[in-house]
Specification:
By secondary structure, this protein is α/β, with parallel strands linked by helices. It has 10 helices and 8 strands. The chain has 2 domains: 5-124 and 201-260, no CATH class; 140-197, no CATH class. It has helices at residues 34-40, 61-69, 80-88, 97-104, 132-144, 150-162, 170-179, 184-197, 201-218, 234-250; strands at residues 5-8, 24-27, 45-48, 52-53, 73-77, 94-96, 115-117, 258-260. The strands form 2 sheets. Strands 2-1-3-5-6 form a 5-stranded parallel β-sheet. Helix 3 (80-88) links the parallel strand 5 and strand 6 (94-96). The protein is elongated and about 60 Å long.
């Protein structure tokens, strides 16, 4: 089996959760130009989970498209990877997991659904807030387990959605739910259930992505072939020349970054 899968991950699948299999080469959350630079090394596959935004430019669609034209299979899940896969699956990028499916099917559209605030690399990208997609999956599970009824579950989801993503964590969500007039006893029942019941949907999708990539490599799949042609615009040619210098600049001053997983 070829040792050739580059994975961009951060708080969704932190270093402590990385499988030991040497087939995966781990990179920090992807930023603009990083995927192009990764593709230059001609891996058999690239997996996009997490990606930076706001503090640095986010990954280009065109660098993903370029990687596809080079025969490199590109997979996305959970965070920015799910978003980009939903946007580019018609061109050959492969999406994995529920979050990807929600964006692909139009159930979700907003980037903030996957955004979280997290710590720096040296602290293992520890998540400080909770992703809206995880909150949705968790409240859906609470309804299925009869912790709350469907109406109250939907109401708590709406409260969470109204919070800014940098403030969106379960304690803040439940406090806001009570402040919005939802029954305190029912909200407390959710709080009591959360330690055992919460759903880490982004993590589940990220783990599924690794399994899909592992199977792809184990099958010794031939290089990807696309039926379309990438336009070599002056802007893209200029960007290709700009990427090496930009990559170093983009990493300067990135302490606790915001993830869009979309980034």
């Amino acid at each position: 089996m070829t040792k050739a899968a580059i994975i961009f991950a951060g708080p969704t699948l932190p270093p402590s959760a990385h499988p030991a299999d040497p087939i995966f080469e781990w990179r920090p959350p992807v930023a603009q130009g990083d995927l192009y630079r990764a593709a230059l090394s001609r891996p058999a596959a690239i997996g996009v989970i997490d990606g930076y935004f706001e503090v640095v430019p986010t990954v280009w669609h065109k660098e993903i498209l370029w990687a596809l034209t080079q025969g490199i299979a590109v997979f996305g899940a959970a965070s920015i990877g799910a978003l980009r896969a939903a946007e580019l699956d018609g061109f050959g990028m492969r999406g994995v997991g529920k979050v990807y499916e929600w964006f692909r099917d139009g159930v979700l559209q907003d980037d903030d659904e996957v955004a979280v605030l997290h710590g720096p690399e040296e602290l293992g990208y520890q998540a400080i807030t909770d992703a809206m997609v995880d909150i949705r999956a968790t409240l859906q599970a609470a309804v299925l387990e009869s912790i709350v009824d469907a109406e109250l579950g939907a109401s708590i989801i709406r409260v969470a959605k109204d919070l800014f993503y940098k403030e969106r964590a379960y304690p803040a969500v439940l406090k806001a739910a009570i402040g919005a007039g939802l029954p305190a006893a029912a909200v407390q029942a959710v709080a009591n259930w959360l330690p055992e019941g919460r759903i880490a949907q982004k993590l589940h999708d990220a783990e599924a992505l690794l399994q899909v990539i592992y199977s792809h490599l184990a099958d010794n799949a031939p290089p990807l072939q696309v039926s379309w042609r990438l336009a070599e615009t002056p802007a893209w040619v200029s960007a290709q020349n700009y990427v090496p210098a930009f990559a170093e600049y983009s990493r300067m001053g990135v302490p606790a970054a915001w993830l869009r997983a979309v980034s």
